[in-house]
Protein backbone atom coordinates (compact mmCIF):
# COMPACT_ATOMS: atom_id res chain seq x y z
CA UNK A 1 0.00 0.00 0.00
CA UNK A 2 1.36 3.41 -0.97
CA UNK A 3 1.89 5.94 1.85
CA UNK A 4 -0.53 8.81 2.24
CA UNK A 5 0.25 11.90 0.18
CA UNK A 6 -1.24 14.15 2.83
CA UNK A 7 1.23 16.62 4.33
CA UNK A 8 1.90 16.77 8.06
CA UNK A 9 2.42 19.52 10.61
CA UNK A 10 4.00 18.56 13.95
CA UNK A 11 3.55 20.47 17.18
CA UNK A 12 6.35 19.86 19.73
CA UNK A 13 5.93 21.24 23.22
CA UNK A 14 4.73 20.90 26.80
CA UNK A 15 1.24 21.07 28.34
CA UNK A 16 0.37 24.25 26.43
CA UNK A 17 0.79 22.19 23.27
CA UNK A 18 -0.74 19.00 24.71
CA UNK A 19 -3.93 20.92 25.53
CA UNK A 20 -3.97 22.78 22.21
CA UNK A 21 -6.61 20.46 20.73
CA UNK A 22 -9.12 21.48 23.39
CA UNK A 23 -12.70 21.77 22.19
CA UNK A 24 -12.67 25.27 23.71
CA UNK A 25 -10.86 26.74 20.69
CA UNK A 26 -7.47 25.12 21.27
CA UNK A 27 -4.72 26.79 19.23
CA UNK A 28 -3.68 23.49 17.66
CA UNK A 29 -7.29 22.88 16.66
CA UNK A 30 -7.25 26.29 14.96
CA UNK A 31 -4.30 25.13 12.86
CA UNK A 32 -5.99 21.82 12.02
CA UNK A 33 -9.10 23.71 10.94
CA UNK A 34 -7.11 25.93 8.58
CA UNK A 35 -5.31 22.93 7.00
CA UNK A 36 -8.33 20.65 6.64
CA UNK A 37 -8.04 18.37 3.60
CA UNK A 38 -4.39 19.45 3.19
CA UNK A 39 -2.40 18.35 6.25
CA UNK A 40 -2.67 16.22 9.36
CA UNK A 41 -1.75 18.29 12.40
CA UNK A 42 -0.02 15.96 14.87
CA UNK A 43 0.09 16.96 18.53
CA UNK A 44 3.25 15.95 20.36
CA UNK A 45 2.86 18.01 23.50
CA UNK A 46 3.85 16.54 26.88
CA UNK A 47 2.38 18.03 30.03
CA UNK A 48 4.97 19.04 32.60
CA UNK A 49 7.93 18.39 30.31
CA UNK A 50 10.95 20.59 29.97
CA UNK A 51 13.40 20.43 27.07
CA UNK A 52 15.67 18.00 28.91
CA UNK A 53 12.89 15.44 29.42
CA UNK A 54 11.70 15.86 25.85
CA UNK A 55 15.19 15.09 24.53
CA UNK A 56 15.49 12.07 26.81
CA UNK A 57 12.22 10.76 25.37
CA UNK A 58 13.35 11.60 21.84
CA UNK A 59 16.39 9.36 22.32
CA UNK A 60 14.35 6.27 23.29
CA UNK A 61 13.13 3.79 20.70
CA UNK A 62 9.52 4.63 21.53
CA UNK A 63 10.23 8.35 21.34
CA UNK A 64 12.02 8.11 18.01
CA UNK A 65 9.04 6.33 16.48
CA UNK A 66 6.48 8.61 18.11
CA UNK A 67 8.18 11.89 17.26
CA UNK A 68 10.05 11.31 14.04
CA UNK A 69 8.61 8.41 12.03
CA UNK A 70 6.41 10.68 9.94
CA UNK A 71 6.74 11.41 6.24
CA UNK A 72 5.83 14.52 4.25
CA UNK A 73 6.37 16.80 7.26
CA UNK A 74 6.16 20.39 6.05
CA UNK A 75 6.17 22.33 9.31
CA UNK A 76 7.28 21.83 12.91
CA UNK A 77 6.49 24.17 15.80
CA UNK A 78 8.82 24.09 18.82
CA UNK A 79 7.17 25.56 21.91
CA UNK A 80 9.03 24.93 25.18
CA UNK A 81 10.15 27.02 28.12
CA UNK A 82 7.19 27.39 30.46
CA UNK A 83 8.60 24.62 32.67
CA UNK A 84 12.31 25.15 31.94
CA UNK A 85 11.93 28.70 33.27
CA UNK A 86 10.76 27.52 36.69
CA UNK A 87 12.64 28.92 39.67
CA UNK A 88 15.75 26.81 40.35
CA UNK A 89 15.09 26.88 44.12
CA UNK A 90 11.31 26.56 44.35
CA UNK A 91 10.84 24.22 41.38
CA UNK A 92 14.17 22.48 40.97
CA UNK A 93 12.50 19.40 39.46
CA UNK A 94 11.42 21.16 36.25
CA UNK A 95 14.00 23.95 36.12
CA UNK A 96 16.56 23.82 33.30
CA UNK A 97 19.50 26.26 33.43
CA UNK A 98 19.31 28.90 30.72
CA UNK A 99 22.38 27.81 28.76
CA UNK A 100 21.25 24.17 28.89
CA UNK A 101 17.83 25.26 27.65
CA UNK A 102 19.39 27.06 24.69
CA UNK A 103 21.47 24.03 23.79
CA UNK A 104 18.41 21.79 24.13
CA UNK A 105 16.37 23.97 21.76
CA UNK A 106 19.21 23.78 19.24
CA UNK A 107 19.25 19.98 19.60
CA UNK A 108 15.49 19.74 19.01
CA UNK A 109 15.88 21.86 15.88
CA UNK A 110 18.71 19.62 14.68
CA UNK A 111 16.63 16.49 15.28
CA UNK A 112 13.75 17.93 13.28
CA UNK A 113 16.03 18.73 10.35
CA UNK A 114 17.81 15.38 10.50
CA UNK A 115 14.58 13.40 10.52
CA UNK A 116 12.35 15.52 8.29
CA UNK A 117 14.90 17.03 5.93
CA UNK A 118 16.94 20.21 5.98
CA UNK A 119 14.19 22.02 4.07
CA UNK A 120 11.49 21.40 6.69
CA UNK A 121 10.01 24.68 7.98
CA UNK A 122 10.38 25.31 11.71
CA UNK A 123 8.69 27.99 13.79
CA UNK A 124 10.12 28.76 17.23
CA UNK A 125 7.57 29.90 19.81
CA UNK A 126 8.65 31.64 23.00
CA UNK A 127 7.17 30.71 26.36
CA UNK A 128 4.23 32.94 27.28
CA UNK A 129 4.42 35.66 29.93
CA UNK A 130 3.64 34.68 33.51
CA UNK A 131 0.96 36.48 35.53
CA UNK A 132 1.99 36.37 39.20
CA UNK A 133 -1.49 37.20 40.46
CA UNK A 134 -2.94 34.35 38.44
CA UNK A 135 -0.34 31.89 39.74
CA UNK A 136 -0.98 32.87 43.37
CA UNK A 137 -4.75 32.63 42.89
CA UNK A 138 -4.38 29.18 41.33
CA UNK A 139 -2.13 28.11 44.19
CA UNK A 140 -4.70 29.15 46.80
CA UNK A 141 -7.55 27.46 44.93
CA UNK A 142 -5.63 24.20 44.50
CA UNK A 143 -3.76 23.91 47.79
CA UNK A 144 -5.98 26.06 50.04
CA UNK A 145 -4.38 26.40 53.50
CA UNK A 146 -1.26 24.57 52.28
CA UNK A 147 -0.53 27.26 49.68
CA UNK A 148 2.97 28.63 50.24
CA UNK A 149 2.47 32.01 48.59
CA UNK A 150 5.85 31.53 46.90
CA UNK A 151 6.04 31.95 43.12
CA UNK A 152 7.69 29.05 41.30
CA UNK A 153 7.43 30.94 37.99
CA UNK A 154 7.74 34.68 37.33
CA UNK A 155 7.45 37.14 34.47
CA UNK A 156 11.12 38.03 34.86
CA UNK A 157 12.30 34.42 34.56
CA UNK A 158 10.10 33.69 31.56
CA UNK A 159 11.51 36.82 29.89
CA UNK A 160 15.05 35.39 29.97
CA UNK A 161 13.93 32.15 28.32
CA UNK A 162 11.82 33.97 25.75
CA UNK A 163 14.83 36.11 24.84
CA UNK A 164 16.92 32.96 24.48
CA UNK A 165 14.47 31.59 21.91
CA UNK A 166 14.50 34.90 20.06
CA UNK A 167 18.31 34.82 20.01
CA UNK A 168 18.32 31.30 18.53
CA UNK A 169 15.77 32.39 15.94
CA UNK A 170 18.16 35.11 14.79
CA UNK A 171 21.20 32.86 15.03
CA UNK A 172 19.66 30.13 12.84
CA UNK A 173 17.44 32.38 10.72
CA UNK A 174 14.23 30.63 11.77
CA UNK A 175 10.75 32.17 11.99
CA UNK A 176 9.83 33.36 15.48
CA UNK A 177 6.50 33.76 17.23
CA UNK A 178 7.34 35.90 20.26
CA UNK A 179 4.33 35.17 22.44
CA UNK A 180 6.00 36.61 25.52
CA UNK A 181 5.99 40.04 23.88
CA UNK A 182 2.86 40.10 21.76
CA UNK A 183 0.56 38.71 24.44
CA UNK A 184 1.50 41.63 26.66
CA UNK A 185 0.37 44.10 23.99
CA UNK A 186 -3.20 43.11 24.89
CA UNK A 187 -4.37 45.56 27.60
CA UNK A 188 -6.00 42.77 29.60
CA UNK A 189 -3.33 40.17 28.78
CA UNK A 190 -3.71 38.21 32.06
CA UNK A 191 -7.13 37.10 30.75
CA UNK A 192 -5.28 35.18 28.02
CA UNK A 193 -4.11 32.84 30.80
CA UNK A 194 -6.33 30.51 32.80
CA UNK A 195 -4.04 30.21 35.83
CA UNK A 196 -1.26 32.68 35.18
CA UNK A 197 0.57 30.10 33.04
CA UNK A 198 -1.68 28.04 30.77
CA UNK A 199 -3.85 29.51 28.03
CA UNK A 200 -7.49 30.38 28.55
CA UNK A 201 -9.96 29.86 25.67
CA UNK A 202 -9.32 33.49 24.70
CA UNK A 203 -5.58 32.90 24.92
CA UNK A 204 -5.81 29.79 22.77
CA UNK A 205 -7.67 31.74 20.11
CA UNK A 206 -5.05 34.50 20.31
CA UNK A 207 -2.15 32.05 19.88
CA UNK A 208 -3.87 30.20 17.04
CA UNK A 209 -4.46 33.42 15.13
CA UNK A 210 -0.92 34.65 15.89
CA UNK A 211 0.60 31.41 14.59
CA UNK A 212 -1.46 31.53 11.39
CA UNK A 213 -0.44 35.16 10.94
CA UNK A 214 3.22 34.16 11.37
CA UNK A 215 2.84 31.49 8.69
CA UNK A 216 1.12 33.97 6.37
CA UNK A 217 3.91 36.53 6.75
CA UNK A 218 7.07 34.43 7.14
CA UNK A 219 6.18 31.18 5.35
CA UNK A 220 3.75 32.30 2.62
CA UNK A 221 4.36 29.14 0.59
CA UNK A 222 2.73 27.17 3.44
CA UNK A 223 -0.11 29.62 4.04
CA UNK A 224 -3.68 28.70 3.13
CA UNK A 225 -5.55 31.44 1.29
CA UNK A 226 -9.17 30.98 2.25
CA UNK A 227 -12.15 31.15 -0.08
CA UNK A 228 -12.65 34.92 -0.52
CA UNK A 229 -16.42 34.48 -0.49
CA UNK A 230 -17.11 31.96 2.28
CA UNK A 231 -13.90 32.37 4.28
CA UNK A 232 -13.57 28.58 4.41
CA UNK A 233 -10.72 26.23 3.49
CA UNK A 234 -12.77 24.65 0.72
CA UNK A 235 -12.28 24.18 -3.03
CA UNK A 236 -11.74 27.90 -3.60
CA UNK A 237 -8.89 27.99 -1.07
CA UNK A 238 -5.25 27.77 -2.11
CA UNK A 239 -1.93 26.60 -0.65
CA UNK A 240 1.24 26.45 -2.74
CA UNK A 241 2.94 23.55 -0.97
CA UNK A 242 0.04 21.58 0.47
CA UNK A 243 -2.46 20.34 -2.07
CA UNK A 244 -5.68 18.57 -1.26
CA UNK A 245 -5.32 14.79 -1.51
CA UNK A 246 -8.79 13.89 -2.79
CA UNK A 247 -10.88 15.62 -5.46
CA UNK A 248 -12.97 18.55 -4.31
CA UNK A 249 -16.64 17.72 -4.58
CA UNK A 250 -16.99 20.50 -7.18
CA UNK A 251 -14.73 18.49 -9.51
CA UNK A 252 -16.81 15.32 -9.42
CA UNK A 253 -19.22 14.82 -12.32
CA UNK A 254 -22.12 12.72 -11.06
CA UNK A 255 -22.49 11.17 -14.51
CA UNK A 256 -18.82 10.19 -14.71
CA UNK A 257 -17.43 10.30 -11.16
CA UNK A 258 -14.60 7.93 -12.07
CA UNK A 259 -12.87 10.66 -14.08
CA UNK A 260 -12.16 12.74 -10.96
CA UNK A 261 -10.55 9.77 -9.21
CA UNK A 262 -8.58 8.39 -12.14
CA UNK A 263 -4.84 8.22 -11.55
CA UNK A 264 -4.70 9.56 -8.00
UniProtKB/TrEMBL annotation:
Q: Name one GO molecular function term.
A: hydrolase activity
Whether Hydrolase counts among this entry's keywords is yes
Which InterPro entries does the entry link to?
A: GDSL (IPR001087), Iah1-like (IPR045136), SGNH_hydro_sf (IPR036514)
| Keywords of the record | Hydrolase
Domain of life of the native organism: Eukaryota
Pfam families, from UniProt? Lipase_GDSL
The protein's name is SGNH hydrolase-type esterase domain-containing protein
Q: What organism does this protein naturally occur in? A: Cyclotella atomus
Amino acid sequence: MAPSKRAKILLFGDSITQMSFSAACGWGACIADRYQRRADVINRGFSGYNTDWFLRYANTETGKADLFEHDRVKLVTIFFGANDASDEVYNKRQHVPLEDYKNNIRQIIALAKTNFGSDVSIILMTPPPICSEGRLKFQKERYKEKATGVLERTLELSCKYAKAVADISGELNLPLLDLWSIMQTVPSWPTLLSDGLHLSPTGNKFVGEALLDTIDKLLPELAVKLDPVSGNANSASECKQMNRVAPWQDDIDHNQPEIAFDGI
